[in-house]
Design brief:
5-stranded mixed sheet, rod-shaped, transmembrane helix, OB fold (Dihydrolipoamide Acetyltransferase, E2P), 19% strand, transmembrane
Length: 150
């Protein structure tokens, strides 16, 4: 199968199908290496050169992909804790009756929640805005619009 060059074309096709199911573009870069090796086979290159071309093109394509905007991770777990599209409570306001070294418990949505004050925020505000969730703990900042909402 290596002699006819069919291996490279079938391999590229299988990688493209797998890429369509996975969706990261990296398998597509390896498929480009397979296509380059198939073209080298058509040009008359021996097996060792075909393997080298496949590896070189795949590696170069992956490195270029990694440097592009398509190869970067878009969301991380830490960003999800602050993303209002993921946590609908972000941006909501609540009152905290008493603070103890930046930590408190308060009633929010009918349940008791642990609340942590973000660094540098005052403990004497009337309203607090939720900026993040860390497990079952609400991270809050003093609400800047307290006067407008009161």
């Amino acid at each position: 199968m290596f002699q006819s060059g069919l291996f490279w074309w079938i391999g590229a096709g299988v990688l493209i199908v797998l890429e369509l199911m996975h969706g990261t573009f990296y398998l597509l870069m390896v498929a480009l290496g397979f296509v380059a090796a198939a073209l080298a086979r058509l040009a008359g290159a021996d097996l060792t050169l075909q393997l080298g071309i496949a590896a070189t093109v795949a590696l170069a394509a992956m490195l270029l992909l990694r440097k592009s905007r398509f190869g970067r991770k878009t969301k991380t777990r830490a960003e999800a804790a602050r993303n209002p599209d993921v946590n609908l409570d972000i941006g909501s306001t609540l009152t905290v009756p008493a603070w103890h070294d930046g930590h408190a418990r308060t009633s929010y949505r009918g349940a008791s929640w642990a609340v942590e004050l973000a660094p540098g925020e005052p403990e004497d505000a009337n309203l607090y805005e939720i900026t993040a969730l860390r497990g079952n703990c609400l991270i809050v900042v003093a609400c800047r619009h307290a006067a407008a909402r009161a």
